[in-house]
Specification:
Length: 724
Amino acid sequence: MDYILGVELNHHNAPIAIREKAALNKEQTIDVLDGLSSHYQEIFAISTCNRLSLYAVGKSIQPMLDVFAGFGVNKKYLSLYPDTRMAINNLFCTASGLESQAIGEHQILGQIKSSLEAANEAGYVGPVLNKLVNHAVFTGKKVRQNTNIGKFSTSLATVGFELIEKHGFDLKETTMLVIGTGNMANLVATVLDRTGVKKLYVASHNEERAKQMANDWGGEAITMNQIHEVLYKTDIIIGGTQGEVNLLTEEKIEDSKCTRAQLAYSGGSQKLLIDFGVPRNFNSDLKNVSNVNLYDLDDIKELTHESLKKRYNEIPEAEKIVDEEAQFIVDWLNERTVAPAIAEYWNKLENISQEELNWLLPKMGALDENQRAVIERLVHRMMRRFSNPVFKHLKESSAAHEDEELMSAMKVLDVNQNFYQSPKRVIKIGTRGSKLAIAQCTIVVDQLRIMYPEYEFHIKVVKTDGDAGNIDVLGAFTTAIQQELIKGNIDIAFHSFKDLPARDFDKTIIAAVPLREDVRDVFISDKANDLHSLPKGSIVGTGSLRRAKQILAVRPDIEIKHIQGNVDTRISKMKRGEYDAIILAAAGLNRLEVDYSDVSLMDLELMLPAAGQGALALETRNDDKELIGILSKINDTSTFDAVTSERRVLIELGGGCNFPIAVYSVVQGEDIKIESFYASKGNHIKLSKSGKRSDLEKLSIELANELKTNVLKKNLNEVEAIEG
């Protein structure tokens, strides 16, 4: 079974400094497709100033991830679509302008069509992606026709014109330099349609194209090497070329000997630079020069925020259309599996009808052409009337994966059944929709797809209370997924083990816990190397009471401040000075392939992890013996026993992931050691217990009871070093 898969780098998740690493022209895009073609049946790419999207027909997104890694882009900046419906929805949302920087803009449709033409010419698109991409374009047009989302769209050209107006330029007295002749044509056309300019220069790597565009616009064409000759007399410079410009791209402008850098010091004359280039055409340090106003794509994103608000009311209706059309493609994919049976049965009907016509018509006497045509049309209509319910039944049985029903129907119709390769079972995996959750789930699903190709594995995103911002309820990140499991809407509930509430399961079972990631926490700061070296009074950000209590146990002289948000949000808050340091889990950073220079791992003696930290849990119904057997193949028994003992301690203490409890178990052969930290009523204690692995439940309960007993003692110094 193959799936439609997608990986995307876009303006939502990555700043322009990251996006420009993977900014590809047409030739480079084809090279990427060529490199991926050996891994996938079909492959397609969209490369624009705000995104690089890869879509493929295959089993795993890993080869696409490797492409981005080759550009120096790690997973934390990427949006992953490791399942057919997820990939379809994203492409259709993109075509509809819902993912654009300027919501509802039309330009993306032309870019998608051009990308499809290029991929088709190179031979990398087959029937599935060809149908998918063409229907994406159809969906994009339908959204704009049936909603007002396109009516209020703001193109980059319009934004550029608004910036020119904002800075008060009298265009009739203004000299403009345009670098690049591709997307810049729209902006220049917008300007010239509304007013003229005093002087227009056009520069391009393609000199012939520059001359043609200059003639069309009444301007003067110059070469890229001549740019510096006109800089001093130019008021507005617009960059939008993917090629290397070498215009003020030095790391430090003040150290540059290049005459082009004199633009930065041409005091008095105000310059407006609009940089639509990816990679950026202008050095971002120019933003610090008093007489220069520089805007890049990220700045434009901020500027357009307010103007986009009025289009948001159209989004729900647009999303409804996207969902309907995405389902159409899912149904079409299912119908493809029975298309040979439908074609064979129709051919049989046509042969039978022709035989009967050959018998009937000679007996009808002299008929004119019109009479013969009416009889033939009648026979054809009868064939359609009789066959349509049959075809509908075949398609519905295929879509519902009712294999016994489908095989019986094909047997009755007397058509070949050998073509039909039904999955042994369709298995739906429910997970949160966060970037980390999807990344973690993808790793496991890729394993299952490789190990069990006869099964179909699909990912379903479930919104939890925690995702909605309500993190104080029990099972904030797990209960909604478990409910879907119990209802039968999914077959596997996928969790971070530490998110599971401290209670025993009823109708479900944890069937597998894959090999555990690094259990440690990490200390992130640009002011100190570790917790001990932080100055007195420093502010440390964490969203965990467990971390807070352990920090204060060794550094009561620092302040703990609550922090929320994803990894980048928390890092940004620390960089802005809201926090002097933050604490995060190493496992999440590793799975997102996050690499920060100011990270140091915290010793377990200082910071014990939460119960189950670094581990994943795959939960299923306890009566699903088939699935329990399948998941047992990815279960790591040592990790399973370790986190089971940790969770038992948590249950006995009546705590959860929001309680100041830390538990960490190490399984070595037949032995197990459980270490713990517990804080309650202003006191805290560390205890550990060792014994046989076979006694892990007994040991866990004993440790929990000792923690509850000893934390209430008045003289904590007597029990700090207690070990069982």
